[in-house]
Amino acid sequence: MSDNLPPCPKCSSEYTYEMNALAVCPECGHEWVPAESAEGDAGATGERVVKDAVGNVLCDGDSVTVMKALKVKGSPSGIKAGTKVRNIRLIDGVDGHDIDCRIEGFGAMQLKSSVVKKA
């Protein structure tokens, strides 16, 4: 809890703390760069940081590798660990699915960033 850190932009908690270059909210787990939120809410909502399973920052157009086997509804076989996915697109998805992509053999799909690693 520092006097120079702004409250959390998601839950307005005043108990934010600094971790490396990020500000972190202990109540909702939201992480953001404090310099971006100081510019105004319009700038902060436009730029969100999405990280993979090991902490690398992901961007639109990156290639990622699936870290663990995933079950797919309606398919007898799932996505195997080690499957490479090219040209991802970051989205505000449902239930934590923040990557939109096309996987060969499965088609269009949404993935969680917590199960992929930047290639």
Automatic annotation (TrEMBL):
<dbReference type="InterPro" id="IPR013988">
    <property type="entry name" value="YjdM_C"/>
</dbReference>
<comment type="similarity">
    <text>Belongs to the YjdM family.</text>
</comment>
<feature type="domain" description="Protein YjdM C-terminal">
    <location>
        <begin position="50"/>
        <end position="119"/>
    </location>
</feature>
<dbReference type="Pfam" id="PF08274">
    <property type="entry name" value="Zn_Ribbon_YjdM"/>
</dbReference>
<dbReference type="InterPro" id="IPR013987">
    <property type="entry name" value="YjdM_N"/>
</dbReference>
<dbReference type="Pfam" id="PF03831">
    <property type="entry name" value="YjdM"/>
</dbReference>
<dbReference type="InterPro" id="IPR004624">
    <property type="entry name" value="YjdM"/>
</dbReference>
<protein>
    <recommendedName>
        <fullName>Phosphonoacetate hydrolase</fullName>
    </recommendedName>
</protein>
<feature type="domain" description="Protein YjdM N-terminal">
    <location>
        <begin position="5"/>
        <end position="32"/>
    </location>
</feature>
